[in-house]
Design a protein that fits this description.
The protein has a domain of about 90 residues. It starts with a helix and ends in a 10-residue tail after the last helix. Helix 3 packs antiparallel against helix 4 and helix 4 runs antiparallel to helix 5. It has about 170 residues and is mainly alpha-helical. It contains five helices and no strands.
Length: about 170
């Protein structure tokens, strides 16, 4: 009795539905939402920017090969000269600090040693750069970094000249 009262379920086959199963619509999932428009715009801007930078650098690359400037000095020689400049600085500092503490002969001997060492260091630096100097005696722009070494050694020699003793061992 109970069965007679039930209504047939819609969409079920064999439940009294006279629709043909082939006429039914196939199952379609809900369409997915796309990316947010701001994400798309930012991605496109980055892509266009990258491509344009690559194209710009490709178009403006140098056409002639890069000239390699051959070094005319030896790195070991230059490092030795830098160490000599530091030693000259320490000798000069010692002489200047102790100019009143020593006896005249010892001060004169230490001053002469510092002056000779500093002058020899300056001469080594001049000889190292002699072949790259311009005709007027200046260094080319690519060697202008060596001017600071000349300035340091000249300052040391100038400081020594200011505290020179009245008489050196040679003059006595």
């Amino acid at each position: 009795m109970n069965r007679a009262r039930r209504r047939p379920q819609s969409g079920r086959t064999g439940g009294g539905n006279d629709r043909d199963p082939e006429e039914r619509q196939p199952y379609r999932p809900q369409p997915k939402k796309g990316a947010h428009p701001a994400v798309v715009v930012v991605t496109l801007v980055l892509l266009v920017g990258t491509v344009s930078m690559f194209a710009f650098s490709y178009i403006n690359r140098p056409t002639e090969p890069v000239k390699v400037i051959e070094e005319s000095t030896n790195d070991k020689e230059y490092r030795a000269i830098q160490k000599d400049i530091q030693r000259s600085n320490s000798l000069a500092r010692e002489v200047v600090q102790n100019r009143n503490d020593w006896a005249a002969k010892e001060f004169s001997r230490k001053w002469q040693k510092a002056m000779d060492f500093s002058s020899a260091t300056q001469q080594k630096l001049r000889e190292m750069l002699a072949e790259v100097r311009n005709e007027d005696g200046t260094l080319p722009p690519e060697y202008s970094g060596y001017n600071s070494d000349f300035t340091r050694i000249q300052t040391i020699i100038g400081d020594l000249a200011k505290v020179a003793p009245m008489f050196t061992d040679d003059e006595e």
